[in-house]
Amino acid sequence: MHFSYTQDQQDIRAQVRTFALAKMEPTSEERDEYERFDRGIYDGIGEMGWSGLPWPQAIGGGGYDFLTYAMVIEELSRICPSTGVMLSVHTSLASWAIHTYGTEAQKQQYLRPLAQGTKLGAYCLTESDSGSDAGAMRTTATHVGDAYVLNGSKLFVTNGGEAEVYIVFAITGTQKETKSCTAFIVEKGREGLIFGTKENKLGIRSSTTIELRFEGCSVPLGNRLGPEGEGFRIAMRSLDGGRIGIAAQATGIGQGALDAVLAYGAGSGSLGGEQFYAHVSEMATHIEAARQLTYQAAWRKGKGLSYGKQAAIAKLFASDMAVNVCLRAVQLCGVWGCLKESKVERYLRDAKVTQIYEGTNEIQRIVISRLLLSEST
Ligand SMILES: Cc1cc2nc3c(=O)[nH]c(=O)nc-3n(C[C@H](O)[C@H](O)[C@H](O)COP(=O)(O)OP(=O)(O)OC[C@H]3O[C@@H](n4cnc5c(N)ncnc54)[C@H](O)[C@@H]3O)c2cc1C
């Protein structure tokens, strides 16, 4: 086992830190307050070569491993968790699905610009009656001639409206829903793809979250991703990897909150003493535990080993850690912790969301226990 980072990993972490402090930190509070998505930040991430970090260089990616990718999400989220989830959904969900299931033509047409950062990706699974129970989806895709016609709606789509490439899951058959689910690539601008209003959220407010409606939206056969009936599997496998991104995001949130507390403690005469030291050392311990679980899952993914259980464990632990660390951060800062300028109140709101998306933590417990049981039989 190796617990050291390569020089490349150390360099990229330092570069992301510099980028985040210079390009994201100055506007992080204002973007949160006004729910402003800043495309310029994504463009900057693309220019740095981080929008397709784990994909091969031959397709426009960075050729890095998933561990390095997790470090990047963590460092971005340490300053701005909204940017962290924007890149995580783009990479782990949208781009991953095309990288893994796409034809060569689909990779050239869609993955290349996603990896190069000239296009942004989104992932559309959730509906009004299918959140945790994703198999209950109602959006349909009817095969008509040389096209599929999509009808229905998807909710809470991260990057919605801003993204150019949408991975959409819809029912194509009459069998039990999960066996009839098929994945599609739908481009922004297709007739019948309608963007709804933006959600006014508790946290990660500067990432956009909107409803998408499909009203007779026709996509060519060539936009089907994978075989008919494989959609549910694609959706679930995407989420396995996505959870590593959310665990990295949550780790970054915890670290960001601890950074803020330490800065406050260093500049405040009212803090210090044994209570303070006990709190910050426990916070650091829990953050480090989340980091190691996250990196382990990312490392396994990069090595081609099974990672579903490790990803769910990392997501469960890191998101709970983030909420607990942020609650302590607010408490330690007293009334100042309740003010916008403290930053810790934003981290707390952002942390809460990590317990909900890409499978709530109740669902993570089900995933983990099922995998444990299957391992023991
Ligand atoms: C900011 C944000 C961004 C998002 N981005 C996306 C996106 O890009 N794409 C996308 O498709 N979706 C997205 N989502 C949706 C997200 O994945 C869902 O909110 C999540 O899956 C939970 O679904 P739900 O909200 O409908 O909750 P529900 O499924 O209605 O669950 C409500 C409560 O019941 C619990 N529960 C449900 N079933 C069980 C069970 N079997 N056992 C125990 N407890 C259970 C849940 O844990 C939860 O506490 C986003 C959500 C948010 C908040």
Provide the CATH superfamily of the largest domain. Answer: Butyryl-CoA Dehydrogenase, subunit A, domain 3
Q: For the terminal residues, how far apart are their CA atoms?
A: 28 Å
In one word, what is the shape? Answer: globular
Name of the CATH class of the largest domain: Mainly Alpha
Give the topology string: H per helix, E per strand.
Answer: HHHHHHEEEEHEEEEHHHHH
For the record, the CATH architecture of the largest domain stands as: Up-down Bundle
Biggest sheet layout: 4 strands, mixed
The number of helical segments is 12
Name the strands of the widest sheet in spatial order.
1-4-5-8
Strand content range: 5-15%
Average residue-wise pLDDT: 96
Unreliable stretches covering 5 or more consecutive residues: none
**Gyration radius, in Å:** 20 Å
Q: How many domains comprise the coordinates? A: 3
Would you give an account of this structure?
- With 377 residues, the protein is of the alpha+beta class.
- It has 3 domains: 7-120, Orthogonal Bundle (Butyryl-Coa Dehydrogenase, subunit A, domain 1), CATH 1.10.540.10; 122-231, Butyryl-CoA Dehydrogenase, subunit A, domain 2 (Beta Barrel), CATH 2.40.110; 232-376, Butyryl-CoA Dehydrogenase, subunit A, domain 3 (Up-down Bundle).
- Helix content is 54%, strand content 15%.
- A 4-stranded mixed β-sheet has the order 1-4-5-8.
- A hairpin with a 2-residue loop joins β2 (140-144) and β3 (147-158).
- α5 runs antiparallel to α6 (104-116), α8 runs antiparallel to α9 and α8 runs antiparallel to α11 (344-354).
- The longest helix is centred in the middle third of the chain and has 37 residues, at 231-267.
- The chain is globular.
- The model has no long low-confidence stretch (mean pLDDT 96).
- Bound molecules: flavin-adenine dinucleotide.
- Flavin-adenine dinucleotide is lined by residues 89, 123-126, 131-132, 156-158, 201, 204, 209, 353, 356-360, 362-363.
- Flavin-adenine dinucleotide (FAD) is lined by residues 89, 123-126, 131-132, 156-158, 201, 204, 209, 353, 356-360, 362-363.
- Its cofactor is FAD.
- Residues 6-117 form the Acyl-CoA dehydrogenase/oxidase N-terminal domain.
- Keywords: FAD, Flavoprotein, Oxidoreductase.
